[in-house]
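Example record used in the benchmark description.
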Amino acid sequence: MKTTLLHVDLSAGGGRLWIKAPQPAADGTIICARHISDEADLDALRAERFCHVAFAPSGDRFAAVDIRGAVFIFHLRANRFSLVHWAGKDVSAICFRPGRDHDLILALASRTLRVISTDTGDVKADLKAHRSIVTCVDPHPSGRYLVSCAGDGAILWDLKTYRRMRHIGAPAPPGGVAIQAAFMHSGSTLITLSRHEGLSLFHFPTLDLRAKLLPPPSGAPGARLTFRSFALTPNRMHLVAATADCTAFVWHLPSETVVEELQLPAAVFPRGAALKAPLPEPTTALPDGAEVAALGVDGVLRLLAMPRGEVAAALGTACYAFAVHGGRAVTCGADGSLRLVELSAARAACAGGAAPPAAAPPRGLGAGGKGQPAPACRRPLAPAQQPRAPAPEGGGGGALAAIGGRECWEEEVEPTRVGGAPRGTAAAPRAPALGLLGGGEWGDRVERLRAFLDVHDEFPAAHRANVWRHVLLLPRNEAAYKALVAMGPHKLAQQQLEAHAVATDSRAKLRLGRVASALGHWCDALAASDFLPAFAHPWVSFFGRDEVLATEACVMFALNWARGWFQYWPSPPLQALGAVDRVLFAQDPALSKALHLAGASSKEYAWPLLRTMFSEVLDHASWVRLMDHVLVSPPERILLFIAAFLNHQRAALLCVTEPEQLRAYLAKARHVEVPAVVAIARKMAASARLRPVLLQVGLADLPPLALQPVQFLGSSADGGAYPLLTDFPKAAVEHHVAQ
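Model output (structure tokens):
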């Protein structure tokens, strides 16, 4: 079908984009907008060219700024454009605020960050703290925070109060200052890039340095790489950093390992964010794209498939800036035009083997010594630098591999060669298995899994049982479980099951009864506690028909995370509840006072959460996401999770006026944003204001789980019995059981 390119005149300052829906041209261009006047020539159009463009997260609008500071908003769904703001000076960077498509952030040449409304153009705030021109701005996924980079360093801003929070990182020499910063998709990690020091990963919101990502040494001794830009793939699996000499390094994020060294067709553009990840379409599903858009000095915009770097699409129109959202891209051309392009045509051209059209370099820049654009070339890593996939341990090993850009947890697989397939199988495109579970010491694997949670917030649902089994080192000791079941139903456990209707399905109730009886025979204190069914029910629901693993998970949790619950039986652990009370008062005095005025002590608001491990107040999906973090954290961190949960639910808890209302609220399962609770707990652990209280209650400077004295379960070869829990008053418990 013959199509005509739709030209839009922006000189009127506003109007409709099209009269009827346009059809993409042969090269995929939908709209070509520019300043048009009767006297305009090429030099005049270049004098009014656009220099920055950004898509809103929703994808229904994008913003473009020309070199005079005119801000245009293009509403694709509403079919209109408008000149909403005149900055009056150069703009060095722009971005939308997540969750608020009506807020646009501009970095002005006057070293000021300006927040404007895209509907009215009104200035909401001017943020001033930088002493040099801002080169990069990136918002937090929640829309609450913003990070900006300039020659004097990176600054974190609070967009709720429009105030500076703090500088990021220590004072750095020239070449060590952050030139780009970005938050990971989960918002729990901040990444900064400096020209010569590489990438730094900071925990957020504590901003503690977690790791440094450095490429493997290569070249002449003493030679230093000069980085220009980096980007994260939408599927959260890879990070790509490009240098000034056509080289790019690809890191696998969960393992923080370099997996590829690419030779790009051309060096990336020296100004602005030359590498960007395409924004995903609004959806509740996890983005699965593995592409990164790269703008070269030859003016060609390419989509590179990671981690191998194949060119998936290329736009030949020379441009200075770009933005990509889903299947569309907006480019700021060197001829002063602003083009909205459908990427399907460029993908089809690359898939058919056609070379992208040659593009003249942007004015003032050479082609970087490259002629026609060529596909990105892979430089294989040295054998010592290649990540190896160790053989699985006995009882089932595991590894995390990226296959086709998606995560895949494998169990009992052969070692995988880099860029190849297991021996004896057909070759398939796959990245190296990096052994998050298989191989190495138990502590190393737990630390790798904790780093995985920093990126993804949760373990893959289809493979969570395998991960938990490796974290808890469950041996599947069927002999020990059968010995406990052979003792018959436990009377106290059966009485508690009748009093607490926690399972409605008859088969689930039978499984819960057998597991509860086995736990009752294993530990008398647990059998004499009135929370045994609520304690065992979520584990039985999680492991399903596998009663052995459900029982072993309960035993492992009781031996390590709940080992101090029975010291004052039949009273609750007063020391732990007192620690929660003090931490909550230090974190949220108003909430703590409101609960005490309602007649609720820590026994009423903390003990129900602790003894059931949130299983009664959280739905199953929220419970398993929270347990992902609990199982890789020190046991004492549970108390901070309880205080963080109460602080997260403060709006409802402030309305409580009597203990009965509190008990009713804590007895109803509900969906909770677990990442928000985990972020509050991390912030409390790193808070200087709370540190004196945390030191007093023993919750400060907790060593990681890998350094804790964890008691593991033995296998059937070790005697066929589980280790016993004996930290309780035996005389009182035995008297209660006898009665």
